């Protein structure tokens, strides 16, 4: 853009020779007619800055989590940005959920031996968060890269080997690199922080458990979501709160484990005392954010809320959750087929969702595949893998749900509670824990 501005004529004043006109000496005619002043403006591009973004490895808007590391690299972890200051936090707080996720914890998980001991490198001082980025790292200590010699030549069916080559033209062979479930260590660590925030602020609790392993399906109604506790979930190695079904699930996993095969299952996750109003129309609906978060976990193949796909068998009048006023004068729903979310926004009921995980590994059996040189062969895969991923997926699901809720909580507080709420319709998010149900 360019423009020119002409200077305005000066205000007339007494001349130096006593005559009328401009106050300049008449011997200099140039001063009688000042030249036109030209000012040029040129639009310049802002200086280019080198920006490095973790494409596909960062989640969240206000509570932002970036995970890093690979299965057989030096270690894995996360960087948490946006964590509020003055939150009590220690490495022991994170270790509880990391221990629930770690390999080698029972015979029905991968035999890889890792302590998954975490260390906080920044963002915490004297046991309190500072508001600055929190870096957490867990070293890899039990690596056996030679187990993946065959995978450097050929692709494992239903794994990310081929697609990583298709996308990048190169891949990390050992352990699958970033596609390995070991990447979820960073998520679980960040999820532990998110759980502390939502529990302290609004009394929100996130709990997940195994509700199906292969064809062993936990009957509906056996688990009371109002009273379900972490102790019930952790009472057995498969993380099913019903002891009878837990034994059936363990037997099903044992049966395929000895054959070098694997099976899938379903994790049910609930969130209690979720503040009303979380989620935003139209693209940032809470349902959409939760689905995106959980479906980003390794081996996920299905997701549903409330009645889920079974709701398609009902009519609208049968499926709708009717409203009523409870004894405390609070608007509630008599049923929860919507899974605690209506119109894409939390409505104060228990959020109920289910995530399906596929079978992940076939060890000791030859399978048809192709090499990187496009030759058809039979592959005998090696390595250490879970015969069923769902028991270890429980804390992963909890982490992703907690991260979504704390991110949405911050958004809700910033937009809708910066000024006093409408008390006849709204509830302050931090007071919900005090509301009896």
From TrEMBL:
What are its GO biological-process terms? Answer: amino acid biosynthetic process; aromatic amino acid family biosynthetic process; chorismate biosynthetic process
Q: How is the cofactor bound?
A: Reduced FMN (FMNH(2)).
Q: Name one GO cellular component term.
A: cytosol
The ranges of region (Disordered) come to: 1-23
Pfam families assigned to the protein according to its UniProt record, in alphabetical order: Chorismate_synt
Q: Which domain of life is it from?
A: Eukaryota
Identification of the protein by name = Chorismate synthase
The UniProt entry, under SUPFAM superfamilies, shows:
Chorismate synthase, AroC (SSF103263)
PROSITE patterns with a match to the protein in the record = CHORISMATE_SYNTHASE_1, CHORISMATE_SYNTHASE_2, CHORISMATE_SYNTHASE_3
Q: Does the keyword Lyase apply?
A: yes
Q: What top-tier enzyme class does this entry carry?
A: lyase
Which keywords has UniProt assigned to this entry?
Answer: Amino-acid biosynthesis, Aromatic amino acid biosynthesis, Lyase
Name its co-factor(s).
FMNH2
GO molecular function (one): FMN binding
Q: Quote the catalytic activity from the record.
A: 5-O-(1-carboxyvinyl)-3-phosphoshikimate = chorismate + phosphate
Q: In which pathway does it act?
A: Metabolic intermediate biosynthesis; chorismate biosynthesis; chorismate from D-erythrose 4-phosphate and phosphoenolpyruvate: step 7/7
- What EC number(s) has UniProt assigned to this enzyme? 4.2.3.5
Function statement: Catalyzes the last common step of the biosynthesis of aromatic amino acids, produced via the shikimic acid pathway.
Similarity remark: Belongs to the chorismate synthase family.
